[in-house]
Amino acid sequence: MRLLLVEDDIMVASGIKLGLAEAGYAVDWVGSGERAEEVLQRETFDVAVVDIGLPGMDGLELTRRLRRPEMASHDMPVLILTARDALHDRVQGLDLGADDYMVKPFELPELLARLRALLRRSQAATTAVLTFGPLELDTANRRVGIRHDADGSLLPIELGPREWTVLEYLLIHAPKPASKDKLLQALTGWDKEITPNAVEVYVSRLRGKLEPHGVALRSIRGFGYRLELH
Fold this sequence. Notes:
Number of strands: 12
Distance between the termini: 27 Å
Shape: globular
């Protein structure tokens, strides 16, 4: 999942970015509302984490602006970070279009849980467990495996972080195909060099782990990939 972090405090941003990256997010960071608005006019993200107390344009104004229909990410989930615990500030943020908020200081596990909930709602999913045939991916507990009908046991499958990202994206959009460009965006942020061929590498690895269990990754020529049962 690709996430935009809007935070002017470099130390806070570095800590959040590190924690989110370790959880499998491709994180892009900007330090101002103006820069965030510029980026969001031309690029799409799965979710944004926005600090209210930004210099210049604050997080509340940014949230209001990014909800405009002409913005590329106008329907993207937004979680506001704030040091303000006043009811008025929380209500104002939600009324301007934020989907959730957290008061600083906070614990990373709670931030991750709230982000997962926002992403599930944005993708019309109601559970932390994504399934496709016998394949199950538990986003909360970071487990993936094949469910056996005979005894209900789960055969675990070991995935690397980027294999996980590709599979999660495919599962969220299944049975529709996922474009190669979107998979590439989900894998990396601005500060990493990953070529389009890297997507093929991770898809190939997933095929080797899933196809023996009846789950195929079909290539859609000129577009991307789709999960299928065989």
